[in-house]
Specification:
275 residues; 9 helices; globular; seven-stranded parallel beta sheet; alpha/beta
Length: 275
């Protein structure tokens, strides 16, 4: 998708981090942008900042709720008449031991990270199908390919987004060839994901309370994100170039694929004949 000017983009998780970076880049390309977020204060602040760059609509949205995503789609079409680019980007993180994770935390993480993407693809597909050209970018993570410890709900959700996107790319190449679809798989990125619990639902036990022994690990990861994380502007630039090239996988940190290749080798080794 090369021509973005005067087209319409919807970005979930658009008030901060990668989402805000995408919205910023789309506006500089001459697009009209709808940003969705569950935090009303962040949403209003981001909308005021982004409005200096172009036409922005802010819609408070809980992506884990299908009805809320439908309301987002309705608002986008009511305001702009179409949607050409959909970025299912909203997400939560969190390092925690499996043995300390409660049901509410599982449902929250999968609801936002995985079902948020499912709802977005399902609800917006009829709108995207009506356009001459469209693109869906689903934000996963390198954790969709790599399965380290202490991130089990996050890893499960991101692997699901990778699988969902690859499946859609296969199906839509036949059914909706004018709709491109890609999965964005960043590693460490300079975002405020460490503050994701501010919008956690009732029943979620804060990680510092549920698993205090992992505080050092969380602090180390957060320092790495802050000190070494890729700027969101670089992520947004790569997404725009990848859409123009009709990519289905977007890897801002391609060096991490070496670790994935090592994992493939380890898994393949398990297929050797048993003694």
């Amino acid at each position: 998708m090369r021509e973005l000017k005067n087209r319409v983009a919807v970005v979930t998780g658009g008030a901060n981090g990668i989402g805000k970076g995408l919205a910023t880049r789309f506006l500089t390309e001459g697009m009209r942008v709808v940003i969705a977020d569950n935090d009303r204060g962040d949403l209003e602040r981001a909308a005021a900042e982004l409005a200096r760059l172009g036409e922005v609509l802010a819609v408070r949205t809980d992506v884990a709720d299908a009805a809320s995503v439908q309301a987002l789609a309705d608002a986008a079409v009511d305001r702009f008449g179409a949607v050409h680019v959909l970025c299912n980007n909203a997400g939560v993180g969190g390092a925690q031991r499996f043995s300390t994770i409660g049901q509410a935390t599982w449902e929250w993480t999968l609801g936002v990270n995985l079902f948020g993407v499912i709802h977005g693809c399902r609800v917006f597909l009829p709108i995207l199908a009506e356009q001459d050209e469209a693109y869906v970018v689903n934000t996963a993570s390198m954790s969709g390919f790599l399965t380290g410890g202490y991130l089990t709900p996050y890893n499960v959700s991101k692997a699901g987004v990778v699988s969902l996107t690859e499946g859609l790319a296969f199906e839509w190449a036949e059914e909706f060839p004018h709709i491109g679809v890609a999965v964005l798989c960043p590693a460490y990125t300079a975002t405020a994901i460490r503050h994701d619990e501010r919008n956690a639902p009732p029943g979620h036990v804060p990680r510092a309370q549920a698993d205090p022994s992992l505080t050092g690990h969380r602090d180390k990861v957060n320092r790495t994100i802050e000190q070494e994380g890729l700027p969101v502007s670089a992520i947004a630039d790569l997404v725009v170039r990848a859409m123009a090239a009709r990519r289905t996988h977007i890897f801002p940190h391609p060096e991490w694929l070496r670790t994935w290749a090592d994992r493939v080798d380890r898994v393949t080794a398990q297929a050797r004949p048993l003694p």
